[in-house]
Amino acid sequence: MSLMPVQDAITAMLQQVPALIEQQEVSLSQALDRVLATDILSQLQVPAFDNSAMDGFALRFADTQTADILPIAGKALAGHAFEQPIPAGHCVRITTGAVLPEGLDTVVMQEQVEQTEQGIRLTAAIRFGDHVRRAGEDIATGQRVLSKGQRLQTVDLGLLASLGIGRVPVYRRIKAAVFSTGDELIPPGEVLPAGHIYDSNRYVIQAMLQRLDVDVLDLGLLPDEPDTIRQSIATARQQADVLISSAGVSVGEADYTRQLLNELGQINFWKVAMKPGKPFAFGSLGGCYFFGLPGNPVAAVATLDLLVQPVLRQLAGEKPTTSAELTAIATEAMKKSPGRADFQRGFYQQQQGQLQVRPVGRQSSAVLSGVGAANCYIALEAERGPVELGETVTIVPFHSMLR
Length: 403
Ligand code: AMP
Ligand code: MG
What we know:
The protein is an alpha/beta fold. Helix content is 21%, strand content 29%.
């Protein structure tokens, strides 16, 4: 079996997995991280009215060119407009957010005036229109402020609220069933018999899915026992949109997961040209999509992040986004042989005016500790050979799923 380029694997999966269409309406307090199911158009202009950006005095700029002192006609407070006519040459005391009284055009900060019994005198040069926020200068009525397929972030909720929108249509959450298999695995918290290891994949996989706002159905840690695995696959098919498992998909391995998957669905077993990673399975189990991650912990994390994540986002109704790639100077040499794309775990920082990066921890796909200390992948192209100190490399900063 030949190696499949990373991008080909992602493209093949994206072509098979549809986007959700089921929607629901949620209140703003439930909307964080949900995917919008419609464009949001503003029904208002923002600001809704001309208002003051400062505490100070509202006036007619022209008056400041002719008069030395401007008497104070009254007060305009936020939430309490000053609605009486303002005599020529007068100003109005105003607070931030208050409606700019009819006919006035400029606000002077209170620090820039001297108050006398007769009125105010300017102590600094001002310009026409200073410190006035104009109606509609931020958002016009009918303007699209958020787009269908956008995942709602913290600030988006404030924006929606500022437009008076209290509920939004979103796609339903996707549900992922997760299990680990392997007779060598023991749940954390229990005594570890000789020759066994703790099941770490299930915890990191579930946590990463939570960061992506995926509902997780934990099907536990399964022994290498066909009936138990068959039962769990059946449960996933009934109850989840996707099933994510780790281990047991290596090529040539006499493994029950692999045999059962072939029996129960259409599964492709790929050798993806990436390191860490390589063995990876994808397919469908009658309406439930299956992702079989490698067992090695770093490979499981990297394939979930780099290969599966875009597919889960599409399934959840999210429109495609590109991951931020940066260019940095390698401050250490890196081993690499041409053939597979290598996603080394690195630490990047700005130094002497440039981005620098170095690999951190042991780069073994079994060693999870190095990933925690890293803040990016150092993405070395498949055809690339060893990297010398001082060479330019592409880095991909870790995003929310790995933090
Ligand atoms: P496999 O893909 O089954 O060949 O497993 C590759 C390596 O990953 C082996 O060393 C397994 O013991 C290890 N491994 C498999 N599943 C897990 C898991 N859930 N947590 C930690 N390590 C695992
Ligand atoms: Mg195994």
